[in-house]
Amino acid sequence: MMSRQELKVNISETKRSYPIIIANNISSQIGSLISDCYRGNKVLLLSDANVSGLYGAGIVSSLEKAGYQVLEYIIPAGEKSKSYHYLRKGYDLLVDNNFNRDNLIIALGGGVVGDLAGFLAATFMRGIPFVQLPTSLLAQVDSSVGGKTAINHPAGKNMIGAFYQPEMVVIDPVFLKTLVPREFKTGMAEIIKHGLIADQGLADYLFERSKNVFKLEKDELSHIIYRSCQIKAAIVMEDEKEKGKRALLNYGHTIGHALEAVTAYKKYNHGEAVAIGMLGAVRLANSLGLLEKSDLQFTEELIRLYDLPLGHQEDPEAIFTALFRDKKVKNDSLRWVLIDRIGNAFIREGIDHSLIKRILEGLLC
Ligand SMILES: NC(=O)c1ccc[n+]([C@@H]2O[C@H](COP(=O)([O-])OP(=O)(O)OC[C@H]3O[C@@H](n4cnc5c(N)ncnc54)[C@H](O)[C@@H]3O)[C@@H](O)[C@H]2O)c1
Ligand SMILES: O=C(O)C(=O)C[C@@H](O)[C@H](O)[C@H](O)COP(=O)(O)O
Ligand SMILES: [Zn+2]
């Protein structure tokens, strides 16, 4: 990893901007870093049991050295914790400890912790500040940036949430050394998504360098984290609230979220479901005559190279029904994010339902 890199996310609607800081070992300075954006004395450190066991003490120590009083909120690891139950427990903790709008929440963890902490921050007293300190690859390249915060509903992913931007995103790639391979690969799915929708150069780079990426080579890791944050930040700056272009970041998520919901968030992790969804989307585009076979094959090979799943074992009818809970649905009509070449995405609606069902059946394996 090169020395410190920094990006700015400018949100024009609210005239706010926040930094994304990327550097090895930067998390050890979290206490002094947050003093740039936070004048209060108390911090709620929200984390999950795995991450807290590995990194909680170090982060608490950095915060305490900088003079902050730290209250820890540790949730069980896994998607099931992105729920009303753990949100409610968070509110109770904040109330019992007299937190108010002058206080700060820090999300130390993967996307589950970040989405839950962000929604807690967005809704407690109509909004208190929060900082993202992402520890999974997925969170470092996607979920910590852009301010989508949410909990799940049994019927659908992220059904209850808010757009609420953090004060700062602090990315320390050193955290990734302890990530298990399955969770590393899930993050790769969102990076692949960024290449497919916006940057052929990134997609080619991933194709050529998969071996180095898996070995956590510093240069490769640095490049794909920085480029992913840059691609995502640029889209969010244009369209914070998903009135248009931001929907492209949802590539692969129409089928992906449906798969997660029909399996009660237990079987596929988010990136795996998105990988299957991206396969469905390229096959759909190819069947509609919008995408060359060579680009379809390139995408399949890329997903295979990163050892992501190439199909599902669920009931296609159940997935089809769940598709209609997608947030992109308008007037009961599904809106698909498709690509017509590697690096260029667009929205298409009015696709024949029988073709969609055939695609879902074709993904059975
Ligand atoms: N808000 C957004 O824009 C956005 C974008 C993409 C995904 N998401 C959401 O993010 C969630 C998925 O995030 P995720 O893949 O990070 O899942 P996660 O938060 O469940 O983390 C995955 C696993 O890795 C562990 N972990 C995290 N960091 C670790 C580390 N450094 N070392 C060892 N273990 C570590 C966690 O404890 C967990 O078991 C989903 O709920 C998805 O919907 C949100
Ligand atoms: O930031 C976005 O916009 C995205 O769509 C990024 C996705 O990777 C992410 O999974 C997001 O949480 C999905 O949002 P949703 O609005 O479909 O729930
Ligand atoms: Zn996603």
UniProtKB/TrEMBL annotation:
Record lineage: Bacteria, Bacillati, Bacillota, Clostridia, Halanaerobiales
Highest taxon of source: Bacteria
3-dehydroquinate synthase N-terminal domain ranges (all copies): 73-185
Record: residues binding Zn(2+): E190, H253, H270
A biological process term (GO) from this entry: amino acid biosynthetic process
Domain 3-dehydroquinate synthase C-terminal: 187-329
Organism: Iocasia fonsfrigidae
Protein name, UniProt field: 3-dehydroquinate synthase
Single Gene Ontology MF annotation: 3-dehydroquinate synthase activity
Main subcellular location of this protein, as a coarse class: cytoplasm
Keywords, alphabetical: Amino-acid biosynthesis, Aromatic amino acid biosynthesis, Cobalt, Cytoplasm, Lyase, Metal-binding, NAD, Nucleotide-binding, Zinc
Cofactor(s) for this UniProt protein: Co(2+); Zn(2+); NAD(+)
